[in-house]
Amino acid sequence: MLEPGAFDKEGFLLNLEAWSPEVAQQIASAEGIELSPEHWEILELLRSYYREFDASPAMRPLVKYCSLKLGADKGRSIYLLRLFPGSPAKIGSKIAGLPKPDNCL
């Protein structure tokens, strides 16, 4: 369990190295999300995207990346919105311990 000082004012981790599955659970809880295997699959994909491109994806690149890596069924906005309501790219990146995507408000 990380202290409140480990996060910025929007709840994103200040030190990306501090992320762990337990921290992901803590952040998800604060967002009102109970993590399922489907959530973990997207979280791993987000972390993979970050390793590959050194950036958190905005929504459109996230949808394309999901489609490419997980198939057309999961590469759809509606699927991601069901898992991460509101802003899948922003909330997913936050739970995955990544920086806020550049173009997310």
From TrEMBL:
Gene Ontology biological process terms, A to Z: tRNA wobble position uridine thiolation
One Pfam family of this chain: DsrC
Active site: C104
Origin superkingdom: Bacteria
GO function terms (MF aspect): sulfur carrier activity; transferase activity
The enzyme's E.C. designation: 2.8.1.-
SUPFAM superfamilies from the UniProt entry: DsrC, the gamma subunit of dissimilatory sulfite reductase (SSF69721)
Main localization category: cytoplasm
Role of this protein: Part of a sulfur-relay system.
Designated name of the protein: Sulfurtransferase
Organism, as annotated: Seongchinamella sediminis
